[in-house]
């Protein structure tokens, strides 16, 4: 099982980023997927989840209305569209399969 995140970077407050996660080594379409983030000095924080078929999604209150999770099962890919970014969104963002494992993460830094 391999999960590889990409798309992170430095963005100004109010800006947008789209994270991607490339999955391999398992039947992607059979698993719910999550995005989890960890800010410096803090524990992991669940951000969003999507069901195996992509129909059902859930969001943490801190990102609801700003972030959108989606997936393309034909491409074994998971996405997180992040809009109206805030400084408090700065963290290492991980793609995670339900039940594990988690990828290595991609850094998102929101700063002026």
What does this structure look like?
The chain is mainly beta. It is about 0% helix and about 50% strand. The protein contains no helices and 10 strands. It has strands at about 1-5, 10, 15-25, 35-40, 45-50, 55-60, 65-70, 75-80, 90-95, 105-110. Strands 2-10-9-4-5-6 form a 6-stranded mixed sheet, with no helix packed on it. The protein has a 4-stranded antiparallel sheet with strand order 1-3-8-7, with no helix packed on it. It starts with a strand and ends with a strand. The relative contact order is 0.33. The model has no long low-confidence stretch (mean pLDDT about 95).
Q: How would you sum up the major sheet?
A: 6 strands, mixed
Side by side, the strands of the main sheet go 2-10-9-4-5-6
Instruction: Specify the overall morphology.
Output: globular
> In sequence order, what are the helices and strands, one letter per element?
EEEEEEEEEE
Gyration radius, to the nearest Å? 13 Å
Structural class: mainly beta
Give the proportion of residues in helices.
under 10%
Separate helix tally: 0
What share of the residues does DSSP label as strand, in percent?
A: over 45%
Q: Are there runs of 5+ residues with pLDDT below 50, and where? A: none
E-strand count: 10
The whole-number mean of residue pLDDT values reads: 97
Distance between the termini: 37 Å
């Amino acid at each position: 099982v391999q999960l590889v995140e990409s798309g992170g970077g430095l963005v100004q407050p109010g800006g947008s980023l789209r994270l991607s996660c490339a999955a391999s080594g398992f039947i992607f379409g059979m698993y719910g997927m999550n995005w989890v983030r960890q800010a410096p000095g803090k524990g992991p924080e669940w951000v969003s989840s999507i069901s195996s078929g992509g129909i059902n999604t859930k969001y943490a209150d801190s990102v609801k209305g700003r972030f959108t999770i989606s997936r393309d099962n034909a491409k074994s890919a998971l996405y997180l569209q992040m809009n109206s970014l805030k400084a408090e969104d700065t963290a290492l963002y991980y793609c995670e399969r339900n039940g594990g494992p988690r990828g290595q993460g991609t850094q998102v830094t929101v700063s002026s």
